[in-house]
Design brief:
It is a single chain. It contains 33 helices and 27 strands. It is of the alpha/beta class and 921 residues long. The protein has a 21-stranded mixed β-sheet, sandwiched between helices. The protein has a two-stranded antiparallel ribbon with strand order 2-3. It has a two-stranded antiparallel sheet with strand order 11-13. Helix 6 packs antiparallel against helix 8. The longest helix has 18 residues. The chain starts with 9 loop residues before the first strand and ends in a 6-residue tail after the last strand. The C terminus is likely disordered.
């Protein structure tokens, strides 16, 4: 509870949902009060039972659960109200989200169109839509698996090469005909941030959008980011949302971890044996409480505290630690008096015996001494009704609390037969109510509740909600006349120093190599032959034409498993990007001294900016579709007259070949979700400041850096590890870039080459005039963001906002004192020129535009931190900064500006300073 005391409360002014059994907030409330479960058998249109179901747990490629909690389609009347460009989008979840956003605006008392003049941002817990992206990946990567059929003649008697080639070609052809066609160009806009971007565009806002992957805590992580952005003054209104879609992939992966129930969803029940997957969308519309009161907005509830933490070192990905959960809970409160106000807890409660017992142990450890002996706090979980809605689970709990507060009813769990024997109910200050009861107000006429969101890998979030409406006199800690868009709200006065840097990049496997030889790095090459099973010359490798297979490939990185005690078996089966990040973080954080100090480790967080998916995710689709490939192959081989015994032998050999070459299916580290890229860092280095992955398309690392800075300003952490990373160098990437016109043709026309790798900076909050703990590499002075649909205005707007957010006095000329302007162009004039025009205030400035992508390739979601490192490397060769000094406001310094993102998306601009020694005090 060391947070800044005057953090402004955030009002919830609008609510909307589309959850199992509830297409509106009124229906959701009735569902909660009736305690009616919504699970049902998955329909054939959503689940191929013959292919993927087996009632016996432990079968590879199978799930023993065929139940889920599903949403009904959005009514056609609501579909017609959606923007034309999204009305026919193939992802039903995206359309649902837009419809729910419209409902939330109406709940705020205004039509959606009236919000267009607001300065707002969209923050969403979301990792993947339905099955379309997986189907497209399977269609592309089936050639990589089918090529392994050519190995069968070496392994199985009586199989000739000509037959293996025939089977290979037929398998590729059949699968591609059966899967959806992406259509003209690069196909429909898919990916985690697309729904957030569509929401921003529908609202008419020009602020940021981002998707957050904190596993099961994703939507509470998004809420945390939205709250901090509002408190910083960078935006005035926010959408915090969660969107989840049930598909067979999740069922199979959770079944492999034995975390599913085959029968029911039963939080706190002695018969609980796992979770039931749910799906749906939840949207909250947020404003600073002072603004909401001033503007006369309805106040449905108030976020009085929200915090994140990570477990640090633990036994495994799936084993939670109460220490990390307790830390998240404690951080969310200003003091013990605030904790004593809690009247109800909406638990995470996954319906696993270990998870539920650990959570209740953590809550009891925090609250035991604060609750009188004659009192117990009711605890519940909406997962008993709508299942585990994955990314949207946290906000489903928040919305439940808001509705029950407003109704004045403590909800009950009426279906529990026997409380879990793993929890010492008689000895803890909590109980599970079996019947609804009135929710009494406190002496101030208020109701208070807490909500948990705990994600796989030890990613924890905790929120504190106070009931509304609230009058202005009760707004403790608010700012009556808030400073707007300056990044200087009360309590946000930290300077942000860059303590360390690290990288694994094409042509530079260390920060030292990158820094000392930056101008001579040449990391571009043709795709290494060993990278793909079916190489570029194979006729099946590409579904669509590609211009080139040149890019920033890394084929000389070898991870030393002994450094972080990662078992070689885990390395073989996990995403290589995970270990590139581990090594790059090691380079950046070890010299800082953080690792030697438990107190500093506890206050160090991690954010990874990356486009969710990539090579490893696409290879996982191959593993998940092995049953489909084998069903087709069985038919071929039976028709060719092979005996049943021979067929099964060939099936076994083929499966082994595929999984040996693409072992993602058996990954023990959770690399199937990008959140593990963050959680792996916290576990390896024992960091407990919270962790999450962020996807804002090409601006992902800009969104990550912005979130890091907001957390440092908020005061609950002192250090942040900010990572920009990407590994997506498969055939599908080159097809998509060619279709978009981004990839140079064989005639060396305009475009950019993709790249892979990881770039890292370690940041420190320097408060109260103190000096940083070591000589900094530079200072983050300000970050601005803009998304207005125009490359010129996006760049110009983000640069202006970054300048205004600077903690130094704003300069009269946006482009004065500029060392260079760095960005990651796509190399296509129609895209880049409008963006570049946004920087051309003078000939001198435009002449200093530069980029690192010509040396290492374009890392898309990771490119922003690469450009940040390039600025540091460039300035380090020209000037030095003394240890432990903060520049005075009149210092002359090198000031670089870095633009992160692409013209058609949100652009983040960063003001970066390095100081001359004679100009510091």
């Amino acid at each position: 509870m060391s947070r800044i005391q005057n953090a402004e409360p955030i009002a919830v002014i609008g609510r909307g949902c589309h959850l199992p059994g509830a297409a509106s907030i009124d229906a959701y409330l009735q569902l909660i009060l009736s305690d009616t479960p919504t699970l049902s058998e998955l329909p054939p249109s959503r689940f191929d039972r013959d292919l993927f179901f087996d009632p016996i747990p432990g079968k590879h490629f199978k799930t023993y659960c065929s139940k889920a909690c599903l949403v009904e389609p959005v009514p056609e009347s609501k579909q017609r109200q959606l923007p034309q460009q999204w009305k026919n989008h193939p992802e039903t979840g995206l359309r649902d989200l837009l419809s729910v956003t419209r409902d939330a605006c109406l709940d705020a008392g205004r039509p959606l169109e009236s919000f267009s003049s607001e300065l707002g941002g969209v923050y969403m817990g979301h990792t993947r839509g339905g099955s379309i992206s997986g189907d497209l990946a399977y269609a592309s990567y089936v050639a990589q698996a089918a090529a392994l059929l050519e190995r069968l003649p070496e392994l199985v008697p009586n199989v000739d090469h000509a037959s293996s080639v025939r089977w290979r070609d037929r398998l590729v052809s059949e699968v591609r005909q059966a899967m959806p066609d992406r259509g003209p160009g690069a196909g429909p806009a898919l990916g985690a941030p697309v729904a957030a971007m569509a929401t921003l565009q529908m609202l008419g806002w020009d602020g940021p959008f981002a998707a957050f992957n904190g596993a099961c805590a994703s939507s509470l992580q998004a809420l945390h980011a939205a709250v901090l952005a509002l408190r910083s003054g960078k935006i005035d209104i926010a959408v915090a949302a969660g969107l989840s879609c049930c598909h067979s992939d999740s069922l199979i992966l959770f079944a492999q971890a034995h975390s599913l129930s085959g029968t029911d969803t039963r939080p706190f029940d002695d018969a609980a044996d796992g979770l039931i997957i749910g799906e749906g969308a939840v949207v909250l519309l947020l404003k600073r409480l002072s603004d909401a009161v001033r503007d006369g907005d309805p106040i449905h509830g108030v976020i009085r505290g929200i915090a994140v933490a990570s477990d640090g070192k633990g036994k495994s990905l799936w084993a939670p630690r109460k220490e990390g959960q307790m830390l998240a809970v404690r951080r969310a409160y200003c003091d013990e008096e605030m904790m004593r106000r809690i009247q109800y807890v909406e638990a995470h409660a996954t319906s696993t015996q270990l998870g539920d017992a650990t959570e209740m142990d953590a809550l009891s450890s925090v609250f035991r001494d604060l609750v009188p002996p004659d009192k117990k706090i009711p605890v519940g979980s909406v997962k008993a009704i709508v299942g585990h809605t994955l990314e949207s689970a946290g906000l489903a709990g928040v919305l439940k609390v808001l509705l029950c507060m407003e109704k004045g009813i403590i909800p009950a769990h009426q279906r529990i037969k026997n409380l879990s024997s793993k929890i010492a109910w008689n000895d803890i200050p909590f109980f599970v109510p079996s019947q609804p009861s009135p929710w009494q107000t406190d002496s101030d006429g208020q109701r208070w509740a807490a909500i948990n969101g705990f994600g796989i890998g030890g990613l924890n979030a905790h929120a504190v909600i106070q009931s509304g409406p609230v009058v202005a006199e009760s707004m403790s800690g608010s700012t009556a006349d808030p400073v707007r868009n300056q990044g200087k709200r009360a309590g946000h006065q930290a300077s942000v120093a860059i303590l360390g840097a690290g990288c694994i990049l094409p042509g530079a496997l260390t920060w030292e190599a990158f820094q000392s030889n930056f101008t001579n790095i040449d990391g571009l090459k043709n795709a290494p032959q060993a990278r793909w099973v079916a190489d570029a010359s194979d006729k099946n490798t590409f579904q669509y034409p590609v211009g080139t297979v040149r890019g920033g490939f890394i084929d000389d990185f070898e991870y030393d498993w002994r450094r972080h005690k990662v078992q070689p078996k885990q390395i073989k089966g996990a995403s290589p990007l995970q270990f590139m990040i581990l090594e790059a973080v090691d380079q950046a954080i070890r010299p800082s001294g953080i690792l030697e100090d438990p107190a500093r480790r506890e206050k160090t967080g991690v954010v990874v900016g990356t486009i969710f998916g990539g090579d490893f995710s696409n290879q996982l689709q191959v593993g998940l579709r092995i049953p489909d490939m084998c069903r087709r192959l069985r038919a071929y081989w039976q028709k060719d007259g092979y005996t049943a015994e021979s067929v099964e032998r060939m099936i076994s050999k083929f499966q082994s070949l595929v999984l040996d070459r693409m072992p993602a299916f058996f990954d023990e580290t959770g690399s199937f979700t990008s959140s593990s890229l963050a959680s792996r860092i916290t576990k390896s280095f024992d960091l407990m400041g919270g962790a999450v992955a962020v996807d804002a398309a090409h601006g992902a690392s800009g969104a990550a850096l912005n979130y890091c800075v907001d957390q440092l300003h908020d005061g609950l952490v002192d250090y942040m590890v900010c990572i920009g990373a990407q590994q997506d160098m498969g055939p599908m990437k080159f097809e998509g870039w060619t279709a978009n016109g981004w990839l140079p043709s064989t005639e060396n026309s305009g475009g950019a080459f993709p790249g892979e790798g990881a770039a890292v900076v370690v940041l420190e909050a320097v408060r109260g005039g103190k000096s940083p703990t070591k000589k900094p590499l530079g200072w983050i002075r300000g970050i601005g963001h803009c998304q207005s649909g125009s490359g010129y205005s996006n760049t110009r707007g983000s640069l202006e906002r970054a300048s205004r957010a600077s903690l130094l006095a704003p300069t009269s000329n946006l482009y004065s004192e500029t060392g260079s302007f760095r960005w990651s162009p796509m190399g296509v004039a129609v895209i880049d020129q409008p963006c570049e025009l946004g920087t051309q205030a003078s000939d001198d400035f435009s002449a200093n535009c530069t980029s690192a992508i010509t040396r290492v390739g374009h890392l898309t979601g990771g490119s922003g931190i690469v450009e940040l490192l390039a600025s540091l490397a460039d300035s380090a060769q020209k000037q030095s900064m003394p240890s432990g000094k903060i520049p005075n406001s009149e210092a002359t310094f090198r000031r670089d500006r870095i633009s992160i993102g692409s013209p058609w998306e949100c652009i983040y601009s960063v003001v970066l300073d390095t100081m001359m020694e004679q100009n510091v005090k």
